[in-house]
Amino acid sequence: MSWLDISEHLPITDPTWIFFLVLTIILFAPMILGRLKIPHIIGMILAGVLIGEYGLNILERDSSFELFGKVGLYYIMFLAGLEMDLEDFKVNRFKVFIFGIFTFSIPMVIGVISSVYILEYSVITSVLLASMYASHTLISYPAVSKYGLSRMRSVSITVGGTAITDTFALIILAVIAGMYRGEIDEYFWFLLFIKVIIVVLLIAILTPRIARWFFRKYEDNIMQFVFVLAVVFLGGGLLELAGLEGILGAFLVGLVLNRLIPRLSPLMNRLEFVGNALFIPYFLIGVGMIIDLRTFFKGGEALKVAIVMTIVATSAKWLAAFFTQKTFKMKKEERSIIFGLSNAQAAATLAAVLVGNKIEVSPGVPLLNDDVLNGTVVMILITCLISSVVTEKTARKIALAGDAVDDNKASEKREEENILIPVANPHTIEDLINMALLIKNEKQKDGLVALHVINDEMASESREVQGQRSLEVAASVGASADVSIQTILRYDVSIVSGIIHTMKEQAATDVVIGLHKKANIVDSFFGVKTLNLLSATSRQIFIVKALMPVNTLRKIIVAVPSRAERESGFTKWVTRLCRMGGQLGCRIHFFANEKTLGYIKGFIDKEYKALRVQYNELEHWDDIIMLTKHVNHDHLFVIVSARRGSISYRHSFEELPTLLSKHFTDTSIAILYPEQYGDPREIITFADPIRQSNRGFCQQVVQWFNKLFKSN
């Protein structure tokens, strides 16, 4: 077949071949350009240029590109809001506001001056053109996310500033468009303000409540994913009805769902996977398809406009990043991240130029002529290339150096962690894995070990099959959160012996187990296995009873005994709880005596200063029953206990089982036994009568004297 015959069938219109070609580009563009050290984002855009109308004309930019392009654009803004560290955002809200003012006002001033005096446009045209420079699209955000820097301070500042400058730019677009359409009257500003406020309140107030109810009611992964997507586009559609662009609605939905979707969770992994694998690349290819490289070679006014627009947009965004860096004494790498993320022009810029090109100031004369339209396309290409290269290069440098500025975890120690999760009950496996994901170091992709122990005396083929199934469930939960879980099925003389031996073999630092379910009225609260495990190891142990999905918890209440700060594992359990609070985005409320609270507050202020924390004095541990008025059904009640013989142990711990069984039956509970140094002692648990403890102590004294006299 000749080239002429092939060209007769171009552009391709068959949906099957369109989708095949797009997927081929998404697959091979990163592979090819990765060898050339070129960011794959650029590859998507250049591939769009190549196959588009102004390239080889292989594909037409049909409705599928408009649909998936809009989905991809919404997805970028949604993920930016979803991955933002809200507590860090609150700490840096002044920086966010200042950067938002810089990145809006500097392009506006330079843009108006250059358009009036260099391009010789009218004031209205110059203002609209300057608003296009002021807005920007987080087109290189996936690169930051890929290197795990989405919670970096400079990233949070840029994302927050994006919402500010895009809002102002879109308001200018709405006002100018309304002026020429005759929609501006004495009620315009009032109605716009009322509509936007109503929509924002609806999204901010109703969305988290409905989402929390839905996640508790329906735990099916597909249903949760579809629900989140529906909410994203509902938010975008509502904000469009209010008169602004839907991308701001998608960003707002990401912010309000931030606390309900932990960063290390199956749902977050699915959202990022689908967006980065399909929707966002589709959007980037669609952006490339509207770019006409022939504009470079036309010369004349079109080339002049393109050069001026590109230089003004790029220099203005660099100046905004520079002034932000100097104002807050930030590092050069942070300035580069801010500039890289904020330099790309795409979404709001396209919306403004297309609207301006359709508005006629007089018959046949558009507000933004074809020279501006072509110049905008060139500006989009160059700014996207600069943005991608700068962001990719800087993010890689920061990731390799390991010096990302994260105010929330500024000095967290990079110690090896191995969390052991013994699994037996199929109904609690997912809750235990999710709890382990909340307390683990999110920068460490492995370190979780799921264990199922079979007693030698009760071994059978059916028990082995059941154990394998339990481990498969644990592995699948971890895989859905993009975390590798090592699974171990072992036979041993007892369940506890199997756990202890595995802890030593895997160098486990923490153990997460489920709370024992009483088999009969004479059974103990914790069960014999848990008590024996506590007696046999000095490692940190979490005993968990989860009555609802952990991501829907609204608050963590922590009861801490006196002298807990003197235990060797004090900073470790505080760190684990702070990680949990950071992942869930909820408040942690500590109850302890004044001295212990001082140590807790001092540690958190130094290591996790952006965390939402509250402190109340609990003068006497016996007053723990008074916490019933603070603990609700959607809270996690954490009791920091202690092994018998430890520094913070109290005899009143003997009453904890009765207290928990009577007053906290409808509450999710985590009982925490901190790590201790030294070999395990002969520990009598608080399930045993106190008199046995005294008798055991007397026997030890007698034995010690007997050994002394025998040696003499």
UniProtKB/TrEMBL annotation:
<dbReference type="Pfam" id="PF00999">
    <property type="entry name" value="Na_H_Exchanger"/>
</dbReference>
<feature type="transmembrane region" description="Helical">
    <location>
        <begin position="124"/>
        <end position="144"/>
    </location>
</feature>
<dbReference type="GO" id="GO:1902600">
    <property type="term" value="P:proton transmembrane transport"/>
</dbReference>
<feature type="transmembrane region" description="Helical">
    <location>
        <begin position="336"/>
        <end position="356"/>
    </location>
</feature>
<dbReference type="GO" id="GO:0016020">
    <property type="term" value="C:membrane"/>
</dbReference>
<feature type="transmembrane region" description="Helical">
    <location>
        <begin position="41"/>
        <end position="59"/>
    </location>
</feature>
<keyword id="KW-0813">Transport</keyword>
<feature type="transmembrane region" description="Helical">
    <location>
        <begin position="273"/>
        <end position="291"/>
    </location>
</feature>
<feature type="transmembrane region" description="Helical">
    <location>
        <begin position="241"/>
        <end position="261"/>
    </location>
</feature>
<protein>
    <submittedName>
        <fullName>Sodium/hydrogen exchanger</fullName>
    </submittedName>
</protein>
<feature type="transmembrane region" description="Helical">
    <location>
        <begin position="372"/>
        <end position="390"/>
    </location>
</feature>
<keyword id="KW-0472">Membrane</keyword>
<feature type="domain" description="Cation/H+ exchanger transmembrane">
    <location>
        <begin position="24"/>
        <end position="391"/>
    </location>
</feature>
<keyword id="KW-1133">Transmembrane helix</keyword>
<feature type="transmembrane region" description="Helical">
    <location>
        <begin position="16"/>
        <end position="34"/>
    </location>
</feature>
<dbReference type="InterPro" id="IPR006153">
    <property type="entry name" value="Cation/H_exchanger_TM"/>
</dbReference>
<feature type="transmembrane region" description="Helical">
    <location>
        <begin position="96"/>
        <end position="118"/>
    </location>
</feature>
<keyword id="KW-0406">Ion transport</keyword>
<feature type="transmembrane region" description="Helical">
    <location>
        <begin position="303"/>
        <end position="324"/>
    </location>
</feature>
<dbReference type="InterPro" id="IPR014729">
    <property type="entry name" value="Rossmann-like_a/b/a_fold"/>
</dbReference>
<dbReference type="InterPro" id="IPR038770">
    <property type="entry name" value="Na+/solute_symporter_sf"/>
</dbReference>
<dbReference type="GO" id="GO:0015297">
    <property type="term" value="F:antiporter activity"/>
</dbReference>
<feature type="transmembrane region" description="Helical">
    <location>
        <begin position="187"/>
        <end position="206"/>
    </location>
</feature>
<keyword id="KW-0050">Antiport</keyword>
<feature type="transmembrane region" description="Helical">
    <location>
        <begin position="156"/>
        <end position="181"/>
    </location>
</feature>
<keyword id="KW-0812">Transmembrane</keyword>
